[in-house]
Amino acid sequence: MKPRIEVVAIDCLMLRLFDEIAESNMPWMLAASERLRASFAGQLIDLVPSYTTLMVHYDGLVLSPAQARELIAEALTDLRPGTRNSGQCHVLPVWYDLSVGPELSLLATRAGCSVSEVIRRHSEHEYQVFALGFAPGFAFMGLVEESLAAPRLNTPRKRVASGSVGIAERQTAAYPAQSPGGWNLIGRTPSALFDREREGYSLMQPGDTVRFAPITHAEFIRLGGDDTPQEALA
């Protein structure tokens, strides 16, 4: 780890801890986040974690850029990684089916296996939540095994159903609401990923882990899922 600081705005600095995305980054990112919150205390306006960076937005009326850099240096002194289990583990039920996951067959062809094998490989891994973005409650997770990695669609869909589970490169995610999107869709979850009444709004937070649990169509409907085929939304 070779930390460096980049200027984002007059009252915002980016702390870059790593250059490459890796699951092993997260314990260090969480430890740094905790230290930064303690170091800046009431002068911290927002702290935004991502795959390899932490964006530190501070009160520019109280702290100068030089003072903010000093607090960051203080927070990194003798930094040690936290435990990987510091976040919550979420189990998201998923109905894997071609009607809601039209790229299942494409991924199977690319991987040289059956659709059922794609489902097995995707659902047997525990994924790290790296960051939130794109839309409220949209959690970027990884890393998907290399055999299932696939580039985003050349032409994004105008409407992707809420709850849709997809893969892009070695990341996986679930859409919290209907929106445009270019990820390879493989299934749909009935889980509420974003709720204004929930503390923190998003079901998942950076540092959490996620497992996808295959369910039947009947169970998907029982849990409140919408089985409208993806093609009907195009």
Automatic annotation (TrEMBL):
Keywords of the record: ATP-binding, Hydrolase, Nucleotide-binding
Domain of life: Bacteria
Entry keyword annotation includes Transit peptide: no
Keyword Cytoplasm: no
InterPro entries found in the cross-reference section: CT_C_D, Cyclophilin-like_dom_sf, PxpB
Domain Carboxyltransferase, residue spans: 3-204
GO molecular function ontology, one term from the record: ATP binding
Name of the protein in its database record: Allophanate hydrolase
Lineage of source species: Bacteria, Pseudomonadati, Pseudomonadota, Gammaproteobacteria, Pseudomonadales
